[in-house]
Amino acid sequence: MRLPCEVSVVSRLLPSAGLRGPGRAARALLSLGRPSGGAAAAAGNGGGGVWLLVSTARDRPGTKYQLKENIEQLFTRFVEDGKATIRLKEPAVDVCLSKANASLLKTFLSAVKLANSGTHEEALPLSALVPPKASEVEKPKTRMAITSRKEYPLTRNFPHSLEHLQASYCRLTRVDVRMLSLRSLRKLDLSHNCIKKLPATIGDLACLQELNLHNNHLEAFSAALCGSTLRKSLRSLDLGQNRLKALPAQFCQLQGLTHLRLDDNELVRLPFWIGRLRQLRSFSAARNRLPFLPEDFAKLSLENLDLFGNPFEQPRPLAPDVQLRIPLTLFECSARAVVDLR
Predict the structure, then answer these.
(1) pTM of the full structure
(2) Stretch among 82-86, 91-95, 118-122, 232-236 having the lowest mean pLDDT
(3) pLDDT, tens digit, 9 for 90 and up, residues 108-141
(4) Do β-strands 26-33 and 51-56 pair in parallel, antiparallel, or remain unpaired?
(5) Residue 175: C-alpha distances to residues 102, 168, 217, 218 (Å)
(6) HEC per residue, the chain
(7) Torsion of CA 193, 198, 204, 210, to 10 degrees
(8) Rounded distance, CA 157 to CA 177, Å?
(9) Contact 6, 22 (CB under 8 A)
(10) Distance between CA atoms of 237 and 223, rounded to whole angstroms?
(11) pLDDT digit string (tens) for 173-214?
């Protein structure tokens, strides 16, 4: 059984010696198992039972702690937050766990309790106490920037922990399906490529807040995306320098948008209900073909606006000028006749 988390091992003897404990927790992999071969012999008579192996990136072979009748107390008050502490009798240390999956942590602690009591050990899903791979103890990668075709990964997957992915100047003609499985992705930058169409499944990226598609070959923005999870999560959208002629009426469902760029397209109109984008603060649609703005545009609460380079037309009256003539009363007609003929 293994548990990836962050670990800090604190000696309870340090304060009495006037020393300070270790600082920040380190990414680690905890394993439950039995020493094998020479390791078991080195453990001596007390080497039986289940042991806990704590491995970090700096110390992959790790440190082993015997668990049988060696746990003084388990602190599990914040287990729902992925935190717990295992207090050992010998050596006098506290193994502080954090940033663990709550469900996995509960299962792991249950196994630790059984290992401490020495009962039902045969039912425990034990692991080999061997050094883990470097990838298992390294801090999960959250950012990746690819700025050329030769850097683009063709044979390996993107790290599933990515939150920020940039793949620019890679000559992509479509959105890589491997990107659509990155459930933690918050920012996706696919600018300066040759993408012609967006897949509807990009709307399944429930955490996506920023989407940059600047300088591609997009000719339309799918109405299906407007009704997806992007409706609530998306905050910034850059569709500048594409080939868009219009946006779907459903575009106004993206009510979480605060920044929208539509520069250098071929837009001839904006969505009629664009005023429903209540959170929009920055809007740019420079160098398009807009002859007018929809009446609903006045409802936006913008802080930054750029509409430079559009062929806006002067408003034309719906009908030629008409001079209304109100019929005169009989009294007024007779009075005028008297004045004219006297």
Answers:
(1) 0.64
(2) 118-122
(3) 999 888 888 877 767 777 877 887 777 777 777 8
(4) antiparallel
(5) 34, 12, 12, 12
(6) CEEEEEEEEEECCCHHHCCCCCCCCEEEEEEEECCCCHHHHHCHHHHCCCEEEEEECCCCCCEEEECCCCEEEEECCCHHHCCEEEEECCCCEEEEEECCCHHHHHHHHHHHHHHHHCCCHHHCCCCCCCCCCHHHHCCCCCEEEECCHHHCCCCCCCCCCCCEEEECCCCCCCCCHHHHHCCCCCEEECCCCCCCCCCHHHHHCCCCCEEECCCCCCCCCCHHHHCCCHHHHCCEEECCCCCCCCCCHHHHHCCCCCEEECCCCCCCCCCCCHHHCCCCCEEECCCCCCCCCCHHHHHCCCCEEECCCCCCCCCCCCCCCCCCCCCCCHHHHHHHHHHHHC
(7) 50
(8) 10
(9) no
(10) 15
(11) 999 999 999 989 999 999 999 999 999 999 999 999 999 999
What single letter denotes the amino acid at residue 108?
A: F
For residue 84, the Cα-to-chain-centroid distance in whole angstroms is 27
Q: Residue 41: its pLDDT value, please?
A: 44
Long-range contacts of 299-308, Cβ-Cβ distance < 8 Å, separation of 24 or more: 299/275, 300/274, 300/275, 306/263
Task: Enter the tokens of residue 44.
Answer: 């001596």
Amino acid in position 66: Q
- The two tokens of residue 317 are 């009256």
**CB 86 within 8 Å of CB 52:** yes
Q: Which position has the token pair 């003609």?
A: 173
Those residues whose C-beta lies under 8 Å from the C-beta of residue 231, and which sit 6 or more positions away, are: 253, 254, 255, 256
How many Cα atoms sit within 13 Å of 128 on the Cβ side? 6
pLDDT at 322: 54
